[in-house]
Amino acid sequence: MDKLRQVLLLAIGWVITAFTGIVIPLVILVCCFIVDYATGILAANSREQKVSSYMSFAGLRKKGSMLLLVAVGLLIDVLLFYLTNAYGVGGAIPFDSVFGAIICVWVICNELLSILENLGDIGINVPFLKPLVSKIQKYINSKVPSELTDESKEENNG
C-alpha cells in the first residue's frame, strides 16, 4: 500500500511539473464544473424540471468529456514539444502547454456561461458578466487560424 501511494504521488508530481502552465486553469475548470453542477441542480427547480440520476449522469459524462478534450490538447502539446526537440528547434514554442491551456480556457468560458444562465434561471441576474465572458470566448476563437477552421469544414463536407 505504501508503494502504491509513493507511485501515485510521484505520478501526480510529474504531471504537475510537466504541465505547470496549466495547473491553475485546470483547478479553475474543476471549480467551475462543481459550481455549474450545483447551480444546475438548483435551477432545475426554477425551470420546473425534475432532477434525475439520468440527467445528473449525463451532465457528469459531458464534464468528463470536456476534461478529455483538455487532455487531447495536452497530448498535442507533448507531441509538439517532442517534435521541436527531436528536430533541433527546441524552444520554438515558448510555452509548455499552448493547446491544453487554450482548450481549458475555452471550456472554462463555456462553464461560466452555463453558470450565469443557471443563476439567471434561479433569479440572480448579473447582466454585465455574460457579455464579458462571451467576449473572452470570441477572443479565444479568433486566435484559431482560419486555415485550421477552413480545413475542418472541408473534411466534414468531403
Describe the structure.
It is built from 6 helices and no strands. The chain has helices at 2-18, 23-46, 53-86, 98-122, 129-142, 146-157. The protein has one domain (19-143). The protein has 158 residues and is an all-alpha fold. The N and C termini lie far apart (53 Å). Helices cover 80% and strands 0% of the residues.
Write the topology of this structure.
Elements: H1 2-18, H2 23-46, H3 53-86, H4 98-122, H5 129-142, H6 146-157
Strand content: under 5%
Termini separation (Å)? 53 Å
The stretches of 5 or more residues where confidence is low (pLDDT under 50) are: none
Following the backbone from N to C, one meets helices and strands in this order, namely: HHHHHH
Characterize the largest beta sheet: strand count, sense, and whether it forms a barrel: none
The shape, in one word, is: globular
Mean pLDDT: 81
* Count of folded domains: 1
Percent of residues in helical segments?
Answer: over 70%
What's a quick, concise take on this entry?
The protein has helices at 2-18, 23-46, 53-86, 98-122, 129-142, 146-157. It is mainly alpha-helical.
List keywords for this structure.
158 residues, mainly alpha, 0% strand, globular
